[in-house]
Amino acid sequence: MGISKEEILSLLRGMLRIRCLEETLAERYQEQEMQTPTHFSIGQEATAVGVCSALEQQDVIYSGHRCHAHYLAKGGPLLGLVGELYGREVGCARGRGGSVHLTDAGSGVIASSAILGQTIAVAVGSAWAFSLDHSRRVAVAFFGDGAVEEGIFHESLNFAALHKVPVLFVCENNLYSTHSSLAVRQPAGIQIYERARAYSLPSRQVDGNDVAAVFQATREAVEWCRSGRGPYFLEGLTYRWREHVGPLWDYDAGYRTKAEVEEWMARCPIKRLSEQLLRDGLCSEGELRRWREEIQQEIAHAIVVAKSSPFPSVQCLLEGTY
Amino acid sequence: MGISKEEILSLLRGMLRIRCLEETLAERYQEQEMQTPTHFSIGQEATAVGVCSALEQQDVIYSGHRCHAHYLAKGGPLLGLVGELYGREVGCARGRGGSVHLTDAGSGVIASSAILGQTIAVAVGSAWAFSLDHSRRVAVAFFGDGAVEEGIFHESLNFAALHKVPVLFVCENNLYSTHSSLAVRQPAGIQIYERARAYSLPSRQVDGNDVAAVFQATREAVEWCRSGRGPYFLEGLTYRWREHVGPLWDYDAGYRTKAEVEEWMARCPIKRLSEQLLRDGLCSEGELRRWREEIQQEIAHAIVVAKSSPFPSVQCLLEGTY
Amino acid sequence: MRRLKYWQAISEATVQCMEGDPNILIAGIGVDDHKGMFGTTRGAFQRFGRSRVFDIPNCENAMAGIAIGAAAVGKRPLVVHPRNDFMFLAMDQIFNLAAKWKYMYGTQAGVPVVFRGIVGRGWGQGATHSQSLQATFAHFPGLHVAAPASPADAKGLLVSALQGSTPVVLLENRALYELEGDVAEAPTPIPFGQGRIIREGNDITIVGASLMAYEADRAADILGEKGIRAEVIDPRSMRPLDERIILDSLRKTGHLVVADTSWAAYGFAAEVAAVAAEKGFAFLKAPVRRITLPDCPAPVSEPLEKAFHPSPMTIVQACLEVLQSEVSSVRGLRDVQERFTGPY
Amino acid sequence: MRRLKYWQAISEATVQCMEGDPNILIAGIGVDDHKGMFGTTRGAFQRFGRSRVFDIPNCENAMAGIAIGAAAVGKRPLVVHPRNDFMFLAMDQIFNLAAKWKYMYGTQAGVPVVFRGIVGRGWGQGATHSQSLQATFAHFPGLHVAAPASPADAKGLLVSALQGSTPVVLLENRALYELEGDVAEAPTPIPFGQGRIIREGNDITIVGASLMAYEADRAADILGEKGIRAEVIDPRSMRPLDERIILDSLRKTGHLVVADTSWAAYGFAAEVAAVAAEKGFAFLKAPVRRITLPDCPAPVSEPLEKAFHPSPMTIVQACLEVLQSEVSSVRGLRDVQERFTGPY
Ligand SMILES: Cc1ncc(C[n+]2csc(CCOP(=O)(O)OP(=O)(O)O)c2C)c(N)n1
Ligand SMILES: Cc1ncc(C[n+]2csc(CCOP(=O)(O)OP(=O)(O)O)c2C)c(N)n1
Ligand SMILES: [Mg+2]
Ligand SMILES: [Mg+2]
Known about the structure:
heterotetramer, A: Rossmann fold, two-stranded antiparallel sheet, 11 helices, about 45% helix, globular, C: alpha/beta, 2 domains, 7-stranded mixed beta sheet, binds magnesium ion
């Protein structure tokens, strides 16, 4: 399947929107008004957008702590995210959950969570329900290379493969789990996508910074899942630019080199695609600028609305427990 | 490496001793004096004896709920086991642990436990300690095909392979987890020993009812571990004759066929080896009879001693908590 | 009314609820085998087969998550654990996700997952197969936690669980499984947070959790022979706890003994004692007493195991002490204890 | 005496114990990184490097088991969790194996594993990163469980843990990490089960766990301004619990408020209230009061989070109510509350 012009432009715009928002948030974060530990996806937009663009609205996604991009790519409202970070009632989790607990039923963002690997099983559960209902829906589990080490990863893949449930596992391998490289966490000699084969799953590694490649791989994967053949595993190689949690850079922390970060920044998925599209004449500098402006306006507006909307009422502290 | 006559006879005698004891225990169990849920290994003696015979005394083993054979094969005193089943102070766990909590420091039986998969990690921990101490010792984890599904299996293999610790994983695949066949628990198309490869481990499947094959495979595996090259994974195909827990037969329970049980009984590891040795003239009917008698005497004696020795004193109920 | 055994009541509730709601599924190790989870899932399997009753791999943590994920898109999974001790492996999903879901995501809908955990007892179940985790579960907001002690309650609380919208943990003591009692035909829910007065009395209140509610009732028989009228209360659920029923009783009796199947420290008995100290202080005429497990893991050896579990006589003795009767003056106590064999 | 911060005291104890015992190892996510587990493992890593301080994969359950297995053959592993909430994943190993090992295997030697778990607080840590699991851990025999509230105690209890033969869980509230206090140079163990009187008083006893010991002391300052002399007790360890120190105080004061960083139901505050109701009943002149978290998961939004955590003023108010003083008569309470910023 080829990618249409419309599709490719929409992939680019989707990434741009996430990037602009996260960069703005990272800046604003330092005003200390967003009081919620935040894991930025800057640099990793291509997997989120590539995967989610290949889904239908009725499909559902789950994510982990680094979830902003997934939420937005699947169609979660921008104000819901911004409002959540500012702890407002207008936030997607009504200010109760914070940055790591995003949800938006309407667009199929069911839940993200801050416990490593937790939602991998939950996504399998939704997919199981879909298959029991003979529905065409697919569930996606986004997780990092670090979550792969948790026992629940193993239990979940085993169950999914056994029951052939329509779940797409998407591992965003950004080489690190907090400050620990893969080398100190997983045995050498085998890649993550190959491990999935131990469960009789089809699996594949893609360049996680090539949004078109991710998109196409996902289309094939989702078709596999939707047709009742069971789960599929996709590994996207990508890289986190900023610190693990928080808005800053951490070139100098010692766990990675500045050269490494810069190398990956040079492979920025947005830069890459926009340069290519400009080269190919599929969009113009002017268009890009206009998009950026539109997005910035949307963001600025959301921030204004979020900041001027009410906090949850302290009277409602207990509400929602049951 | 070939197997010497002495070695092969000792393998046979080891299996015979376990079989005789368990059959006696299964009979006596029905007197309701052993009040502890008991998982018999009858039919599975070859993996225990084959593996443990290839170990040195300083090596340690861990097991799960079906642990009698491992305990005895590694050299755990017979009275310690019998006494434990009868709940006496003379039991290897002083009557506190019962059938599933065997231990004997002297012979390197560190612990068996009734929570699936639990001791896989614990064995890795002991092996890790050995490698930190640059010791030659090896740790063995015995577990069933059912424990493979637990998350801790995955976490443990990952850690062991990463740190190249001298642990030998021994999966006794008897095709069932309680009454559930592999087909309803693990995806088709891949075998358990192949899954171990997902951790960059050498792994191998052996006929778990061929004690000589197990012995030789273990010798090679242990050499691998001892030489600092890391963990090794061995899968032995075998079969449980009696019910999952308790002393009875369960041909008719519906989860397996009588034909299947009989087919496996025909492949009895003891019958097989003794017939072969008789055929090859390596032992005589008389010898076998004498062994049997010696073993029965040893067992009868242990039972008498166990039954006549004291229960733990109720005054000591709390003792040992701290 | 018909009499059913405890396990039959559970089975009946399950089948009836599944008939009423096609979204209910059962998942657990061996729920479809010939033993049918001590009979409790056999009826459902016979009636609904493999399309709704699922044997599962050994994966406690993932299974809890899978149940949550199915619940998030409309299913009502009932997950059964042959021993509640295995649920330690699933606690992350239960506490860090199911219990917090509705609050943490600010949603209207929670995840209606129901976990049944069976508590082993006797015959050398040992340290890892006979714990009673009610206090552990009930400490965390967002769950309902109950431990039915009668067939009727086993039915009614399970019906409540399968019809409600809150994640529920039900703990069932294996020793109660053969207990028989009146059980209504209709699947009528018993609300969480509503205790039950097993017998009325004015002299002393005995609150017993799970099997201990049953034992407390036996103890009250014995006390009755001495002319002491104990009020026996089964809280039925630990979260929410029916404080009202306990305090109302205390108001009458002024004396309190709490019996539990777990340890004293930070356990069910502690919570009830705390409620008394906090809200029933004005009624209390004597110190509260906790009857719980000795502070050690469960031993296997028969004499130790026998000494380990509190008996009705342990409760009787505690009541007499609270009432400051002379224990030795109660004739024939030993005999009664010896005669008692209970439902195990 | 030198003054050290709480995290420095932990770091010092670790290094000193590791110097004294080559079998001590550290394992945990990121224990060797630039943040060094909020500084607590940085010193050990600098001193002993990768041969004794191990970054690990994300595998909480296996890691607990691996630590146990290493302990079974002579090591003394110290496992550190950046949040104690992650320990739900390791509870099977902790409860079903480590805690029961010595008893269940009838052995002389136990498995001396030490688990440190950090309790998050504030800045939107949220529902799964700010729980306080002391009651959950302390319910089970076989463990020692403590939650030091001062730098000296953080040091002394860790020394005790690393020198003892019992599996230990230490819970450290992140909000205490920057707190400074006198800490002796020598690695002197503080035994588990020995509480500490933070200040003496005759009017009311305040027992505070972990951070709440600190807050109780602030509350006592405020009460002091009103002429109320509160005795503030930090139990330091939850298992064993120093009942004696609580009861002795109660004998003097007759009034009890218990403050905890977790929920009321089945929590630390319940246990202390139960001890009072059971063993201190004769001393009690008024109902016990529990100051604990509201019965909901931890919210993120700042105003909710602020309302969620009890403050010294919450404790003050409870004390006044127990003493039946007129709350409104205490001048300037609001101001004091506003002025207080605490150590966060
Ligand atoms: C069970 C659990 N263990 C540890 C943590 C702490 N933690 C939060 S994020 C993280 C790193 C995860 O790495 P990865 O899965 O690769 O995701 P990334 O941050 O790289 O996107 C860790 C260890 C956690 N949240 N949950
Ligand atoms: C964590 C856990 N889950 C479930 C059980 C119940 N259980 C005990 S033995 C067993 C079957 C194990 O099968 P396998 O590992 O193949 O060993 P086998 O009995 O066949 O020797 C099960 C499910 C348990 N003990 N622990
Ligand atoms: Mg990563
Ligand atoms: Mg098996």
